Amino acid sequence: MISNEPEERGSVFSDNDIGQGLMSQALDASISGIIITDNRQPDNPIIYCNAAFIKISGYTRTEIIGHNCRFLQREDRSQHERALIREAVKNGEACVVEIRNYKKNGELFYNELTISPIHDKEGHVTHFVGVQNDVSARKKVEQDLRQQQGIMEKQIADRTRSLKESEVFLSSIIQTVRESLLVLDPEFRVVSANDHFLKTFKVSSEETVGTMLYELGNHQWDIPKLKELLINILPTNNPVEDFEVEHDFPHIGKKLMLLNAHRVELEGQFKDQILLAIEDITDRREIERRKDDFLSIASHELKTPLTTVKGYVQAMERMVNGATDEKLRTYLSKTSRYLDRLNSLIAELLDVSRIQTGNIELHKMPFDFDRMVRETIEPIQAAANNHRILLEGSSGISVVGDESHIIQVINNLLSNAIKYSPDAQQVEVHIARVSDFIKLSVTDHGMGISPEDQKRVFQRFYRAGDIQQRFPGMGIGLYICEQIIKNHKGTIWVESEKGKGATFSFTLPVKAKEEDGE
Fold first, then answer.
1. For residue 276, what pLDDT band results from cuts at 50, 70 and 90?
2. pTM, rounded to two decimals
3. Over 258-279, what HEC string results?
4. Could you say which of 56, 267, 425, 445 is the most buried, measured as most Cβ atoms within 10 Å of its Cβ?
5. 392 with 471, same domain?
C-alpha cells in the first residue's frame, strides 16, 4: 500500500512560505510523478519525490531519496535513452524520452520522462526536475497495432494447440513437484490440488477439490494471515513471494509455511485464478534456530577463555625485557594481534546472534555526524599505509542514533573498501544531506561486484566465489551493517560494476525521534 501521509512524501519547500507551501501541495496533488535532483552533489541524487512518483515506482520515499534516477532501470542498462539523459544532464539541457523502468516488485513499465534544468542567478544548473508518466498501456496498444492480424491469429492458434498438447505433460510436472500446490478460483474455491498437498496435510482429493479454501479439513485453513494474503495483499501486489504463515493444524501439528501466490491475468476460463504454492519450512527453521543457538553459546563460551589468554599474553609482554628477549617479544606481539582478530570475529558472531534473536540494543542519543565520521576515519587512515582516505562534503547537523553502531557500520565499509582494492591508492568518503536524510557513501576502486552478487551481498554468511578464494572472512559484516541501518529506519545499498570498484551508500533520517514513533 502507498502511504499518503505527509511524512512519507516530504517536501523541499519551506513550511513558513505560503506560496511555496501551495506549490508543494500542488506537486503532491499531481497525477504525474515528479522528482527533483541536486546537480551540485556527486551522482545527482534525488532530494524530492511526490506521492505520484512513489505510487508509480512502488518504492517508499526512504528507498528513493539519495539514489540516482538510474536505479529504476535496474540491470536494463543498454537502453539508448540512458545516453540521451546523461548527455542532457551533462549539458544542462532539457530532454524528453520514453524509457523502460522497473517497479520495486520487478514489474516493467514504460516511463515518459521529461527532464528540465533549474538555473541559479549566475546561470549554473543547480537542480533538475523530472516529470514521469506511466505510458505502459499506450505502448502496449502501439505494439499490438503494429502486429499484422494474420500473424496474431497464427500465434494464437499455435499457442492454443501447444497448450492442449502439453496439458497432460504439465499436469505430470505439477504432481512431481516436492511442494504443495493449489489452484483456486476467484472465490477461493479449490480447483485442483497436487499429490504433495494431499499427502502433507493428510486429505483426499474428493474432500479438497470444489471446497472453499477456508472450509478445508473442518476449517483448519481458516487462517487470518492467509486471508490477509489473498484478500488484501495479492490483488495489489501481484505476485506475492515468501509470505510466512505459522499455524497449528489439528492432525499434523504446528507448521511454518512460506506461501507464494500468483493471480492469473490471462483472459478466458483461467482468468483471475490463483496459483498458491505452499512450502513447509518447519524443519528448516528449526535447524536454523539450533544453528543460531550454537553460534550464541559457542561465542559466549569462547569469549571467557579468550579474555583470560589475552590477559596472560599481556602479562608476559610486560615481563619481557632486554635485547635477548626481542624474539620472544615479537612472538608475543603477533600472538596478541591474532587474539585481537579472533576477539573481533567472536564479537561479530555475537552481533549476529543478537540480531537473529531480536536482542540487538540501540542506545540512541544526539551526536555530531560529521565529527563522528572524521574521528572514525583517523585510526583507519593511520593503519592503512597504502591507501589515502579522502573525505568530501558535510551535513552540518546532529543525528539521533546509536553512535557506536553507526561507527561499526562505517568501520566495516572502510575496511572492506581497503581490503578489496589492494592495488588502488585511494578510497573516497562523501557526506551530504539529501532532503531530510543524511547520506554517506564509501567508494573504492577495486575488483567490483557482479550484478548477481550484489543481490545477495547483504545476506548472512554470503561471500562471492572469487572473494572466498582471495580474501579471508565469514561474510557477516555487511549483514550486520544492513541490520543496524534498518534499525535506524535507514537504507543501505551498493552500486558496482565488475572490475570498476564499488560504492556502498546508506541514508539515515534526520528526524529519527519522530520516525521511531510512527
1. confident
2. 0.54
3. EEEEEECCCCCCCCCCEEEEEE
4. 56
5. yes
Taking the C-alpha atoms of residue 216 and residue 298, their distance in angstroms, rounded to an integer, is 45
Q: For the CA atoms of the chain, what is the radius of gyration? A: 28
**Cell numbers found for residue 28:** 503532491
3 state DSSP class of 263: strand
Burial 266-288, CB ≥16 within 10 A → b, else e: eeeeeeebbbbbbebbeeeeeee
Q: Same structural domain for residues 385 and 510?
A: yes
Expressed as residue numbers, the domain containing 111 is: 6-142
Q: Is 96 helix (H, G, I), strand (E, B) or coil?
A: strand
Ramachandran angles phi, psi of 510, nearest 5° = -70, -40
Q: Select from 353, 358, 403 the least CA-distant residue to 508.
A: 403
The CB density around residue 95, as the number of other CB atoms within 10 Å, is 16
Angstrom distance (rounded) from CA 179 to CA 275: 12
Residues 47 and 27 sit within 8 Å (Cβ to Cβ): no
Residue 15 covered by a domain: yes
Give the tens place of pLDDT for each residue, 379-402.
Answer: 899 888 889 999 999 999 999 998
**How far apart are the C-alpha atoms of 128 and 93, rounded to whole Å?**
9
Name the grid cell of 429: 568518503
Alpha-carbon distance 492 to 455, whole Å? Answer: 12
Q: Name the 3-class secondary structure at 46.
A: strand
24-65 residue pLDDT tens? 787 888 899 999 999 999 999 999 999 999 999 999 999 999
Residue 109, strand partner residues: 101
How many residues appear in the chain? 518
CA gap 65, 57 in Å, rounded: 13
Residue 501 lies in a domain: yes
User: Rounded distance, CA 465 to CA 453, Å?
Assistant: 9
Distance CA 438, CA 477 (A): 22
